[in-house]
Structure formats: structure tokens, C-alpha cells
Design a protein that fits this description.
This protein is an alpha/beta fold. It contains four helices and 13 strands. Helix content is about 20%, strand content about 25%. The strands form four sheets. Strands 4, 6, 9, 10, 11, 12 and 13 form a seven-stranded mixed sheet that branches.
């Protein structure tokens, strides 16, 4: 099963165009549209910093979030305004999982939210992680099917037991239970794009993201999955 990214790359302002150079040209395209029709509180915050020396991250309203519709394997530490987007993300994960497997995951496994650092390979720009405005997703953990309805809804007999859907292992799977996991992951990213949940969505097609999804709300649009 082969998948391709049909979504545009939109960079606002132009100063962030350097990020596009890291993406696979056949996967990411450029456009001139606005990053989002809706303003976001951090849009006016400059991400430009000195590429050398000690850095200081902005002081923002932060909170810990365990998950509203689904739980994270451990609480995420995020900018307060980012919570609403994560709740939308959780709801979509829940819906797509139910459509695919007949049940929802027990937890979402992430590998980082807040981290005061620069963008790797572009040291003059502040990472969205430094604002608590990003999350990296590694996997989704599912428990065993409970009851006849959940067992019947499982797309493969082996999926009636508990399992984990991992981005690095299942993104390109085309056979057996792995094909169901690939369908789940691709349908999930398509829904996130359709519903405009995040502005930046990076995955296996983007350098350094072979084993996780990166989602954030930077003041530009970048999609490479």
C-alpha cells in the first residue's frame, strides 16, 4: 500500500522558508496562503534568536495535561493555549481508532512536549517545543478487545489481543495486521489536516522524524508526512 502527501507547505513569514529546505521536495509543496484562517496567541511572538550562546525561552502560561478524551502515558507540559488543540487531536484519535479497530486506545505515547531548545539544523530559530507549543507522538497503546462487539469489529483476528501502533514500525506496512495500523495512522493524519488541528505536521518523510509524528502551531504551515 503506497501513500503520498497531497497537502501544501505554507510558510508565513518568508523568514521561515529555510525550514522547507529540510523537507523532501516530492512530498512537500509551497504555497502563498496564510498559515491559518484563525489567529493564535503566539503568532506575534518572535522565534528568531542568536544561533550561539546561552538561550532563554519566553515565560508563558504553562500547564500539565493528562488528556481529556484519551490519556497520555504521562502528563504533557504545554502552553495553556495549546491544550484545546490537543483535546481536538485526542477526539480525532478516538474516532479514527473506533472506525479502524472497533475500540479506542488506552493511551497515547508521546516523546516530548516542552523543551527549551533551538530548531535542530536551524539554530537561529526557536523550536516550538521551547514554547510548549508542540508534541511528538511515538505510539498508540490498545488493550484487548472486550465483549463480542469489539472482537467482531477487529479487522484482523490477531488484533483482538492488546497491541501497540508505532509510527516507525507501521507507517508503511502493507500486509497482515500492520496494514490496518498503517491505515489508522494515515487516516489519522488526513483527519488532522482536514480539520486544521495543527499547522505543522511532520512524520517519516521529514529528516529526523522516522519514528514519530511532530505536531505544532507555529506561525507558518509545514506538512511532510
Amino acid at each position: 500500500m503506497a501513500y503520498s502527501n497531497r497537502w501544501p507547505l505554507i510558510l508565513v513569514p518568508v523568514a521561515f522558508a529555510a525550514i522547507a529546505l529540510l523537507a523532501t521536495p516530492t512530498v512537500v509543496r509551497a504555497d502563498t496562503a496564510d498559515a491559518s484562517a484563525l489567529a493564535y496567541p503566539l503568532d506575534s511572538l518572535s522565534r528568531t534568536i542568536s544561533p550561539r550562546g546561552k538561550m532563554r525561552c519566553p515565560k508563558l502560561e504553562m500547564l500539565r495535561h493528562k488528556g481529556t478524551h484519551l490519556r497520555y502515558h504521562k502528563p504533557v507540559y504545554i502552553y495553556a493555549g495549546f491544550k484545546e488543540r490537543l483535546e481536538r487531536f485526542e477526539a480525532i484519535v478516538s474516532d479514527v481508532a473506533f472506525e479502524t479497530y472497533g475500540r479506542r486506545p488506552r493511551r497515547i505515547v508521546h516523546v516530548g512536549t516542552y523543551n527549551c531548545r533551538r530548531i535542530r539544523r536551524i539554530p537561529a530559530l526557536l523550536s516550538e517545543h521551547a514554547l510548549g507549543n508542540a508534541i511528538d507522538i511515538e505510539a498508540f497503546d490498545f488493550g484487548p478487545a472486550r465483549g463480542r462487539d469489539e472482537r467482531t469489529a477487529s479487522p484482523h483476528r490477531r488484533l483482538r489481543r492488546g497491541f501497540k501502533v508505532r509510527i516507525d514500525k507501521h507507517w508503511d506496512q502493507a500486509r497482515g495486521p500492520g496494514a490496518s495500523h498503517a491505515a489508522f495512522l494515515h487516516k489519522l493524519t488526513e483527519r488532522l489536516l482536514e480539520d486544521d488541528v495543527f499547522r505543522v505536521l511532520l512524520g517519516p518523510a521529514f529528516p529526523g522524524h522516522q519514528d514519530h509524528f511532530h505536531f505544532d502551531l507555529a506561525p507558518y504551515r509545514l506538512v511532510s508526512l
